[in-house]
Design brief:
The protein is an alpha/beta fold and 580 residues long. 38% of the residues lie in helices and 16% in strands. Strands 4-3-5-6-8-7 form a 6-stranded parallel sheet, sandwiched between helices.
Length: 580
């Protein structure tokens, strides 16, 4: 994009084609097929957003930078291209850091771009408007951080950010753009030559044949093999090869929450319903795009068998991930697509079936647990409990498997993870590695924008509070999102009381019988209250069919929740009964 130079009073009215830093940022992003920006406008980036929209980019403007950032992060996960979040300086930048660091922790490619004060003012601490050394603050929280001081370097800055976000283990990148640079003018023809089209930003990393064969030999020797699929496997988009590999092994597999749907959760080898038995008894465990972090009890402890009795095969693009908690007997370092493809090839045509005694035992345990759960999912209690409400939503996802499920909360998250089956890859998006609350409306908006698919966001009333104002964003852009708020009057449950008998309610208790549905109506969306699983099912079906932004206030029994969902063990237990 170029602009005509304004004529001066003392010069002939000849013109030259000029551009500036703002337009170069837009041109650099578009050159690299990044056509959507998630943002909150303000000084000094408001005009940049206006120009971006004028140049044909889609600009989705949020009410808070954290949620714009979460939308950009999930866009990166779904597309394998870095999602871009654009914020103002200082406070806006800080608001975006939660999403940036969450993207880095979860290996989502994302670029946070923020306007900033000039270096000469920041370094002398002269008290500029929203003055802050943003680059220094961002560095420890992301994969890489860059600053562009001259318009002629915009192309390099954007290119480096894209490559850093996508290559190797993906993650978040910060790009600092001082206000002065955004207004710098330069010759448009010369500027065009400074832009860079990034070639192969995430090159394949081929594993060694020796490592692949070592892993296959160990897997073949197993009497009780187990495969664990992580969200890295979902991100890889090597869906057909992963399915073929899992089916060829015949081994039970466990999907981590965002890997659900790589194979349908109803697949005969899916053993999520027998998770405890699988982890406790498996003798060889193959990890594909999953870490042995807290979500898997670090590969040790009571969740697992005797320390040292289990052997691990680990596929990961980062060699430093190996041996991070327990010994990895067969590390396979490379990108997941290449690793799985090579393993499939090396298995040959006569791979032995997984031991029948093991697969039969796991199948029996799985079916036993499913049978125990089934009656609880079919109740029509008023007020609802988590099982009855989620049982109704489980049926809807089965009917509409292309619906993207966004899920957060404590009990709402933990019960939904085990109750709602997912049938297609990348159709379940949730709090991920950190377990951070507040991803709901950002993820829902980003998923709707990037895929065009209907989105069902199932969130607890506590989790909804972090991002609830973004329902206005859903309405403003008319996004096909149905939000179900599980309303049990509090954090975990609504029954706690103030032990002093004072007027203040307990810290975990909210306003009783809040009408979240009226919030959605206030912004022009559809708001409904549901008090039974049958009502909930009807309302969700109508919402998904309409494609209109909808919020369903699902009234849950305030006694139904448990402390911290299923991770209450992480709460420290006080030994002090009374203050001395």
């Amino acid at each position: 994009m170029s602009a005509q130079a304004a004529p001066t009073n003392d010069a002939p009215q000849a013109t030259a084609d000029l551009t500036d830093g703002m337009h170069l940022v837009i041109d650099a992003l578009k050159l690299n097929d990044i056509n959507t920006i998630y943002a909150v406008p303000g000084i000094p980036i408001t005009d940049l957003l206006r120009f971006a929209q004028a140049e044909g980019m889609r600009v989705i403007s949020f009410r808070h930078e954290q949620h714009a950032g979460q939308a950009a992060a999930i866009a990166g996960f779904l597309t394998q291209k870095p999602g871009v979040c654009l914020t103002v300086s200082a406070p806006g930048f800080l608001n975006g850091l939660t999403a940036l660091s969450n993207a880095t922790t979860n290996c989502f490619p994302m670029i946070l771009i923020s306007g900033s004060s000039e270096r000469e003012i920041v370094d002398l601490q002269q008290g500029d408007y929203e003055e802050m050394d943003q680059l220094a603050i961002a560095k420890p929280l992301c994969k890489a951080a860059f600053r562009v001081l001259h318009a002629e370097d915009v192309g390099v800055g954007v290119a480096r950010a894209i490559r850093a976000a996508c290559s190797g283990r993906p993650g978040g990148v910060y790009l600092d753009l001082p206000a002065k640079m955004l207004g710098q003018a330069m010759d448009a023809a010369k500027a065009a030559k400074t832009l860079i089209k990034v070639i192969d930003p995430a090159p394949r990393q081929i594993p060694s044949l020796e490592a692949v064969r070592r892993g296959l030999d160990l897997l073949k020797s197993a009497k009780k093999p187990l495969i664990i699929l992580g969200k890295g496997a979902a991100y890889a988009q090597a869906d057909a090869d992963i399915r073929a590999f899992v089916e060829k092994t015949g081994a039970p597999y466990l999907p981590m929450s965002m890997a659900k749907g790589l194979l349908p959760d109803t697949h005969p080898q899916c053993s999520a319903a027998a998770r405890s038995t699988c982890l406790k008894e498996a003798d060889v465990v193959l990890l594909i795009g999953a870490r042995l972090n807290w979500l898997l009890s670090h590969g040790k402890g009571k969740t697992w068998g005797e320390r040292g009795a289990q052997q691990f095969i680990h596929i990961d693009i980062a060699p430093t991930e190996m041996d991070s908690n327990v010994a990895i007997q067969a590390p396979i370092v490379g990108d997941i697509g290449s690793c799985v493809s090579m393993m499939l090839h090396e298995m040959g045509a006569n791979w032995p079936a997984a031991p029948a005694a093991w697969t039969t035992a796991i199948k029996a345990k799985r079916e036993e647990n499913i049978a125990k759960m089934a009656p609880r999912l079919q109740n029509n209690n008023v007020p609802m409990d988590f099982h009855g409400a989620l049982g109704a939503l489980r049926t809807i996802i089965k009917e509409k498997p292309d619906t993207i499920l966004v899920n957060e909360g404590a009990n709402t998250l933990d019960f939904a993870r085990s109750i709602i089956d997912i049938y297609e890859p990348r159709k379940r998006l949730d709090v991920g590695t950190w377990g951070v609350m507040g991803i709901g409306m950002g993820f829902a908006a980003g998923a709707a924008v990037e895929t065009g698919k209907p989105v069902l966001a199932v969130v607890g009333d506590s989790a909804f509070g972090f991002s609830g104002m973004e329902i206005e964003t859903l309405c403003r852009y008319n996004l096909p999102v149905c939000v179900v708020v599980f309303n049990n009057n509090g954090i975990y449950r609504g029954t706690d009381v103030n032990p002093t008998g004072g007027a203040d309610v307990a810290p975990t208790v909210f306003v009783k019988n809040a009408r979240y549905d009226l919030m959605m109506q206030a912004f022009g969306g559809v708001g409904i209250t549901a008090t039974s699983p049958d009502e909930l099912g009807r309302a969700v079906r109508e919402a998904l069919a309409s494609g209109k932004p909808t919020l369903i206030n699902a009234v849950i029994d305030e006694k139904a929740g448990t402390e911290s969902g299923r991770i209450g063990n992480l709460n420290p237990q006080s030994v002090v009964k009374k203050k001395a």
